[in-house]
Design brief:
By secondary structure, the protein is an all-alpha fold. It is 75% helix and 0% strand. The longest helix has 26 residues.
């Protein structure tokens, strides 16, 4: 739909890849898959399929479609690791609640130990 020469040249140049927007969506799917994996195991294959397809789409997008204007210098790792640790903490809290409802106190004790280790990490 580009009509002017400026619009045509802008349409031909590659866009900057906003990794934070895509990565936050992938992290959300990971958190939901991890959290509900024990309550509804049927969600695991769908989460794996999504991550598999998202990996190849993200690799294709970063390689062939978009252009990287700057190097991140490792700024993505702290963001990703803190979100994954937060999802593990959320998972442990939900599992403590499930074990408490089912009156499985040994499992709750083990999960609390795992929760403390995750918080310390």
């Amino acid at each position: 739909c580009a009509r002017t020469p400026r619009q045509k040249s802008w349409a031909k140049t590659p866009n900057h890849y906003r990794i934070y927007t895509d990565l936050s969506q992938h992290h959300l799917v990971f958190i939901v898959t991890l959290t509900y994996s024990s309550l509804a195991p049927l969600i695991c294959p769908f989460g794996w399929i999504y991550m598999f397809v998202a990996y190849f789409c993200m690799a294709f997008k970063t390689t062939y479609i978009t252009q990287q204007y700057y190097d991140g210098f490792g700024d993505i790792f702290p963001v990703s690791s803190s979100r994954i640790i937060l999802s593990l903490i959320l998972y442990h809290i939900i599992m403590c609640g499930v074990f408490l409802l089912r009156q499985f106190y040994e499992g709750m004790a083990i999960t609390i130990v795992c929760l403390i280790v995750s918080v310390i990490f």
